[in-house]
Amino acid sequence: MDKKTTEEALQKTGKGLKGVVGEFKEFISKGNVLDMAVGLIVGSAFTAIVNSLVDDILMPVIGTVLVGINFSSLGITIPWGNHPFIAIGSFLNTIITFLLTALCVFLIVKTMNMFRRKQEEKPAPPKPSKEEQLLTEIRDLLAAQQGKPIQKDEKKNN
Question: Transmembrane segments in this chain: where (predicted)?
Answer without folding.
Answer: 36-54, 61-80, 86-109
